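S1.2 Input.
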Amino acid sequence: TNFFEPGDVLTSLNIAFPQETQNYMNFTIWYGVYRKDTRTLTYSSGGHPPTLMFPANRYEFDEAIELSTRNTMIGLLPGIKFIQDSIVLKEESRLYVFSDGAYEVRLSNDKVLQYPQFTSILKELHSSQKLNLENLLIHTKSLCQTPEFEDDYTIMEIRLGV
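S1.3 Output.
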């Protein structure tokens, strides 16, 4: 496996973890490789929520770019080749990689927060120059029905192009 080629990595993981040998369970993933010399981010995703990329020094609401590829979850379908995509960073950027548990939280009205609503929160915080992991956690928790999250709340902020 060439670990610098995200599509190859996901294809290999799909071969290594067929759901038939994993108690019919599968998993999602977002995998990226950043080449500092060319400022190129190559990525692939398997059923995972899109990663959001924001320019670090511009704060318009709609500046976010979704980084995702149309691949299935790992282990779901045997024999497929996972695709990858790439983007050249023109400026310093911040990536937000998160699990579905970061946005599938039960709200005070007993509904569940959805991906578009969560990305709007990120965009709102970004445009007000208040986007950081602590503020995002505080904001999301303030919407929750219960003091604890029902699922994992996993999110990473990655700075690129520095």
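S1.4 Remarks. The radius of gyration is 17 Å.
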